[in-house]
Amino acid sequence: MNSRHSDGSAGDANYGVIGTNYTKYRQPDPHIADFICAALGNAETVLNVGAGAGSYEPLDRQVTPVEPSASMRAQRPAHLPVAIDATAEKLPFADQSFDASMATFTVHQWSDLKSGLGEIRRVSRGPVLVLSCDPNELKRSWLFDYAPEMIAVEASRYPALQTITDHLGGTIEILPVPIPLACTDGFGEAYYGRPERMLDPGARLANSAWSFVDPSIAQRFVAKLGRDLQDGTWDARYGHLRTQPFFEGSLRLIVARP
To answer: Locate the Methyltransferase type domain: which residues (predicted)?
Structure first.
């Protein structure tokens, strides 16, 4: 099991280092948020585990956020509730305390997935929502052609969807979530039609997978992508993505009902 980092980050990524300007690049996308709100149904009390800076927390419900990273807790906007310093694997709540629970872009950070999902199921009366990526679909992105090492790391960190559903149990629904062209949540695939954005070091830093590969990989990526954008190579191969309204990538919303 991973030990917590100096800022409290409990998973493999140290958000005290990579999360400094996280909210500049990772804003909740309304299209993705609609999927989450619909899946929450009529739940009034919602637990958000691995809440980070508060992305996708519904404003019309009573949300209890849990976030172990001090850096991420500090970036939560004032209109959102203060996050509790705790980890998924040891939630400080009684059984069935919440109508529903959610975990967005976080399960791949947990040091003990089975324990964390068991805890989130324990404290939830109703649905548990997990927004994650299907590791088998990550190669669909053009990023794989430019930084296969980064995609390989990402695929190795994201748990298989079957593993998540097995640990949650109950009635399972897995919803593909198409990514909009102007996606405001800057995970890697969000820039499928805006490749220039990936030349920004901050945009890459807001995607934790880059912190697990040698810096030379990013240097090679920037050099190759910059050159291909300048001479038209990228557009010759992927230019159609610049006007494609949605990208059917790896993003999935798992909804587990008891």
So the answer is: 47-125
